[in-house]
Amino acid sequence: MGRTISLFSGYSQKENRTTNYCLLVLKMIYEENPKFLAEILSGLVGYDMSEFVGVRFRQQERKPGTVPDGLISQRSFTVYIETKNFDWFYNQQLENHLEALSGETQGLKVLLALGNFDGDISQRFDLIKRLCKKKYRGQIFFSAVSFEDYINVIEDLLVLPKNVSDIVRDLRVYLDEEGLLPSWRNSLDVVNCAGLPEDVLEGHVYMCPAQAGAYSHARCKYFGMYRQKRVEQIAIIRAVVDVESQDQATLLWANTDDKTSLLLSEAKNRVQQLRPGEFPTRVFLLDELFETTFSKDSPGGMLGSKQYFDISRFGAENAEQLSDYLRGKSWSELR
Fold it and tell me: Which residues contact 264 (CB under 8 A, 6 or more apart)?
């Protein structure tokens, strides 16, 4: 048997606790106003659910053989949620959910994949979408939602009473502490570019072997070009692409809305121009560069090929602002 959503869930597994907390917030919002829940679900699913959530009050509505003076009714809808703290959804589990959903009572049916998605997922669930359309004839809606989108929809769509908005804020803190929100937006990847600075300065790219270990990079919004004990340039990382051959490339992640096909093509062209025949190559596609002076104030050079900095304190909205904030500062001030 399933459990009732509760403040005191008792679950030991993180995914179960996360599901409980996310549903608890929806439950509290519904109890405050059913229309609020309808707006949230509509935002998450991309389908207007206002007619399905909450009790309807009608009068003089004709029914077969009679016209009651008043009518109180509630339409049926069912939402299945599969939660993953990592992006490791697998089709068989989702197909099983679809099959079970098809056996539910009549009404709107939705399968929601709530996960810690990263990168382009536009083609990620093609099979599940095809099943919804063909096998289930459009009677089941499917939507893949990141934790960031989930919490943003709640915060952006509604003006909630303080007691509920405080709980939503606590949920954001919990999701962030569990690593389920993209802290990459406030991260600066400082990379040693002393070897080939012209790649960055002239080509607006950084390239390295597509290997694990020293050459693997966590997702960050900003790139810092380092040489001679200081960061000289700051840029937004548009995307990172692994180019396996002249004809094959894989998008690791993108911080832009540019089409994936265009990013892959651009990365392959850069390799052809600057590293012909060197495969596999990891390509950082960089946006406009902005000068700064962010100095390493400890003895010696940079340990390793990269260093990460949390720059959330500055509240920078773009690379130009961040370059201004960092100008004249030392590394120790951010540690």
Answer: 241, 249, 250, 251
